[in-house]
Amino acid sequence: MPPSAPVVRFSVDTPLPSGRIRVAASENGVLWAAFHEDDTVLLPEGLDLADISADRRAAMVAERYADYFAGRRRGLELPIDWSLTSGLQRRVLQCLYGTVGYGETVTYGELAERCGAFDAEAARGPAARIVGTLMGTTPIAILIPAHRVVAADGLGGFGAGPDALPTKRWLLTLEGSLAPTLDWDGPDPA
């Protein structure tokens, strides 16, 4: 279902290995955010902003992301426009958003079980794979924290591209779920 309010589209600078985040926001909240320039499958139609300071939504989103990346904010506390999600995807993403906080991680199977969308037996197998696929289709990067969902035996996946796993590691290090390494160039996660 497309958003009912006018949409603005803009980019936000980040220190992530993946670079800038592209964002779309409606009057209802953040509608879409992606790490990669070519990740435009769900990019909603809207007005492209060259100057984000002129739009209150864009300015607030940019400020909150900047504070989060600098380690000054633990939550983005931005409204979400869920209209690009539906059904099982929305149920799992809303469960993730509401139950896995800053500095926490959950496995794909644990999230499947927590959301109650699958029976207990399926949550340990096929449902965990379905949740993994849903994390790969999350329409709003970081605000819906798919980076906090990990495999039972390690980090798991995080989209495509050579910077996908380094981006996930960076975010989990920022939030304190992973210890900084000698090459860590982000803020002190403590």
From TrEMBL:
SUPFAM superfamilies membership: Methylated DNA-protein cysteine methyltransferase domain, Methylated DNA-protein cysteine methyltransferase, C-terminal domain
Keyword Lipoprotein: no
Limits of the Methylated-DNA-[protein]-cysteine S-methyltransferase DNA binding domain: 89-176
UniProt keyword annotations, A-Z: DNA damage
InterPro entries, alphabetized: MethylDNA_cys_MeTrfase_DNA-bd, MethylDNA_cys_MeTrfase_DNAb, MGMT_N_sf, WH-like_DNA-bd_sf
GO BP terms in the entry: DNA repair
Molecular function, one GO term: methylated-DNA-[protein]-cysteine S-methyltransferase activity
Family: Belongs to the MGMT family.
Identification of the protein by name: Methylated-DNA--protein-cysteine methyltransferase
Organism annotation: Actinospica durhamensis
Lineage: Bacteria, Bacillati, Actinomycetota, Actinomycetes, Catenulisporales
